[in-house]
Amino acid sequence: MREALLARGAAVTTVPLIRLVPPGDEGAALRGAVRDLARYDWVAFSSTAAVRALAGVMTARPGSDSGLPSVAAVGPATAGAAAEYLGVAECLLPDVFRGEALAAAILGAGQAARSAVQGAPDARAGGMPVLVVQAENGSPALVETLRGGGAVVDVAPAYAVADRDPAVVSNTLDSAGQVDWVVLASSSAARALSACGVGLRTMRARVAAISPVTAETAQELGFTVGAVADPHTGDGIVDAIVTTVESERRALTAQ
C-alpha cells in the first residue's frame, strides 16, 4: 500500500499502531487443531498472520499437513499467504471481503458439496465441521454466521493484538507535520490510535478505512471518515483516497 500511495504522489509516513503477540493460551488450541486437521471439512483464515501461524505449527509437526481440508480466506492477500506458506492451490474467497460474507461462501460451498453426494445431510442438519483461525478476540462475525448456518465451529486463536507505545506513535505523527489522511487497516488500529490521544480533528486529518466495519469503529471513536475501500484491500484504500481527492478538486475547479 505504501508503494502504491507513493506512486500516486503522496508523501507517506508509516506509523505501526499495533503489534502481534502470542494468544493467551500460547497457541495450545492451534496446536491441538493441527493434530486433528483431518476431521474438518474447512479451515477458514481471517488474516495473513493467521495463515503464517498455522503454517508455523505445521512446519514444527512434520507430516501434519497431510490432512489439510478445504481452505477459505477472507481476502486475496490472505489467499496469497495460504498459497505461499501452505501450498494451497485452490482457496475459496467471498464476493465481499468480510467475515460474514466468508461464512456465507463456506456454507454455500459446503451445502453444494454435500448435496452432490446422494443421501448426505445438508450443512445445517449435518453440522459441517469448520476450523476458524483468527486473532484472539477478533471479530465474531465469521464464527457467528457459520454457527447460525448450522456449522460446528472450532476457533483456534493464532495471535493476539497489542497496542504499540502511545508515546512513540504520537511522536511519529508529530514529526510527520501536516497530515491529510490517516489510513486504518483494521478496527484494532483505530482503537490503538484513539488510545494514543492523537487529535486527528485538530490535525484536520481524515480517515481512510479498509472496510465499513473499520469505518464504523473509527466514527464511534470520534474520527472523521473520508473514504472507505471498495474492495476492502490495500489497493482499494489507495483508489478510495485518490477518487475522493480528485472529486474534491474537480468540485473546487468548477466553483
Q: What's the quick description here?
A:
By secondary structure, the protein is an alpha/beta fold. It is built from 12 helices and 8 strands.
How are the strands of the biggest sheet laid out side by side? 1-5-4-2-3
- State the helicity in percent bands: 40-55%
The CATH topology of the largest domain, please?
Rossmann fold
> Could you describe the largest sheet, including whether it forms a barrel?
5 strands, mixed
At CATH level 2, the architecture of the largest domain is 3-Layer(aba) Sandwich
The CATH class designation of the largest domain is Alpha Beta
Cα distance, first to last residue? 33 Å
The ordered H/E elements are: HEHEHEHHHEHEHEHHEHEH
Count of strand segments:
8
Radius of gyration: 20 Å
Number of domain modules = 2
The whole-number mean of residue pLDDT values reads 87
Strand content: 15-25%
Q: Which structural category fits the helices and strands?
A: alpha/beta
Helix run count: 12
Label the overall shape. globular
Poorly predicted runs are: none
